[in-house]
Amino acid sequence: MVNSEIKYIRKSALFLTILFSIAFALVKAQTPEQTYEFALFQSRQGNFDIAIKSLKRLQFFDDQNSFPGVFKALADCYFEQSNYENAYYYYDLASVQHENDSLLPVIVARKVTCNLFSRQYQEALIDLLSFNNKLNPLQQRQFNMLFGITYFYLKEYDQSKYYFGQCSVALKLQQPENLDKSFLKVRRIEKRYNPNVVKVMSMIVPGSGQMWAGDYRNGINSLLLVGGLLSTSVALSGSLSIFDSMFIIAPWFQRYYMGGYQKAYEIAKTRQQSEKNKVLANMVHLLNQTTTP
User: Fold this and answer.
1) Of 12, 76, 183, 199, which residue is the least packed, with the fewest Cβ within 10 Å?
2) d(CA 293, CA 35)
3) How many whole angstroms separate alpha carbon 201 and alpha carbon 267?
């Protein structure tokens, strides 16, 4: 019985050795060109993890930099996976080592987009200002659009408006008439949902700031909780001293009162950004329609 088990183990080990040898030979037989094409094919099919592994293997063995497109291909894979940190890293390498100058505007635009998605607005602006290559009209429109978006998130609205206007100028078209109205709306939104004002409102009347920002559920909860605690404190004062009743209620009152106006600040900040994003998306959509050749 023991001998038969040993023979079975030996046969299994031999089979696995042969199998791994064949697989290794197949991998070894694949040329760098074939590996590159295989990776690009997998990327087109949406198999980004497989493509990344193949591209990284090719990158590791490519001492002569025979495949400069590897960096952009890697960056594109990471970008499609919404891994903007790694995408930016490889786009940055691609922008330095890529031999095709005509692709540089595309690579830099993707670098900027990665920073915008990562909310690295200052870094996005630096990349835009650092690029001095000549651009064709369509590329210039794209860069103007990126400048407009970047300055918008930096709250430099005059600069943002200028570059959004240039999106039309680049193709010799008239500036959309409602561009001024859009930026006026942004300023009204900032005033309407000012987080500091909303915070003070909730400090004076608990819940009022949240409701002013449009969050009635949290506003009513805050009002009822703080109001209930005050009522409880008054009720307890009939059987306990004012000091004792306040001592019991104060920690809870402080927690819900302070938590209420702090939450009001965050609600207003989120609502403000959400409304501004809608205006921005509408402007970008309008400009894309207006400036389409």
Assistant:
1) 12
2) 39
3) 13
CA–CA gap between residue 124 and residue 141 (Å, rounded) = 17
* C-alpha radius of gyration, the chain, whole number: 30
The span from the CA of 60 to the CA of 48, in Å, is: 18
Neighbour tally for 157: CB within 10 Å: 17
- Using CA atoms, how far apart are residues 124 and 160, in angstroms rounded to an integer? 14
Per-residue pLDDT in tens (0 to 9) along the chain, 293 residues: 455 655 555 556 555 555 555 444 444 456 778 888 898 899 999 999 999 999 988 887 766 666 778 999 999 999 999 999 999 999 999 988 765 677 899 999 999 999 999 999 999 999 999 998 888 888 999 999 999 999 999 999 999 999 998 887 655 555 556 788 899 999 999 999 999 998 888 788 888 888 888 877 877 777 776 666 555 555 555 554 555 455 455 554 556 566 777 888 888 899 999 999 999 999 888 888 755 54
Instruction: Give the C-alpha separation, 6 to 218, whole Å.
Output: 71
Q: How far apart are CA 75 and CA 73, in angstroms?
A: 5
Residue 247's identity, in one-letter code, is F
